[in-house]
Structure prediction request, 388 residues.
Amino acid sequence: MTVKAATNTREEIIDRAFQLMLQRGLNGFSYRDISEPMGVKNAAIHYHFPNKMDLIKALIDENHRVLRRSTSEFMAYGGAARVQLEGLFAFTLNQCNCGRPICMVGALAIDYDELDEEIKKANNSFMKDSVKWLTRVMELGREQKEFDFNGDPMSKAVSILAMIQGARQMARVHGLDYLENIFAQIRIDLGITE
Amino acid sequence: MTVKAATNTREEIIDRAFQLMLQRGLNGFSYRDISEPMGVKNAAIHYHFPNKMDLIKALIDENHRVLRRSTSEFMAYGGAARVQLEGLFAFTLNQCNCGRPICMVGALAIDYDELDEEIKKANNSFMKDSVKWLTRVMELGREQKEFDFNGDPMSKAVSILAMIQGARQMARVHGLDYLENIFAQIRIDLGITE
DNA sequence: TTCTCAACTTACTTACAGGTAAGTATAAGG
DNA sequence: CCTTATACTTACCTGTAAGTAAGTTGAGAA
Prediction:
């Protein structure tokens, strides 16, 4: 069998690009920002990712992996709705604390029309999955009388996701001050009192 | 007295840059994007705005003027809280319909660390003004029994602004579908039934 | 009439972005 | 030992971004 050379260059490129992407957005970093601190040349990146779109695609995949890993505990269907919601808050707070207030959707949003169809589709279906998950959490919370809210669970889920999206953007500009305010208000709007 | 030459070049630059900024963000347009369709040279822009930061500053001011103009009707203190809130929704929807789902704060957010202190400050105080205004609307609505919500008015205001911020970002990526959902949910969470 | 100044244009520069083609070192396979 | 593939580097290219310095034009002031 062909033994792969002990190169982690490809992975390191993804790691660094991923960080940069979530800190500065799609057009906020260049190949140089990746290659120079790695001690390789720009062309080395082109070797692994012939063009930037290929790199972006890899970053979307990476995002899915990371998200799946770090959200699997609280996203597991069957857990208490409240626990799942708090998991989302903790995850969001953690991302902001790690200097990543911008999420992938936010990073792609501003340059959205430059993206090619495949990426848009992946991004879109990721969004839909999130809505689906949180909708289920809302339904569950209502059934189990953990949450008390009016309106349909899907609208509620979308509004909470929007709030978190907006909160992260605010965090970028105004620091983390408003974040807890927003989480608190979401709890209150869900009739969570304790 | 020195009569000013009948030049509106400066204003046209601001107009065009403003449009571009709100469509593509800070780093999403170049001098060329402005000068070429105007039929002037890049250097003409440098004449009026020696560097890009000067232009951005002018755009922030323009944003304040535009916002003050287009929000003055519904933002007037003293009006019914519900009317003021609906004004905000209509304004947001209108912006999205005009192909400007990104607001100024959103446009600046992604490149935030590139900005100089003066701009950050202006942006910050704009945000604070918005929070202040909406907080007052929330207080008013509660006093006049137009709104029925728990939690303090300021948190409520911040959460609504975050929601709208997030909604605009979603609108960019997913179209306007979710917008009405979100507005509806805000109404419901404020105890508005009719 | 001449002077001056605002509002440009012309003609650059520097820097950097993304990308490519051709060459090279290394290691494993046959 | 020779071949082949991988994982690069070297040395380019094109395009574009922001910015600058010096020259031009036209209108009003002195």
Q: What stands out?
A: Residues 2, 4-5, 7, 9, 40-41, 43-44, 47-48 of chain A lie near DNA strand D (CB under 10 Å from a C1'). Confidence is low (pLDDT under 50) at residues 1-6 of chain A.
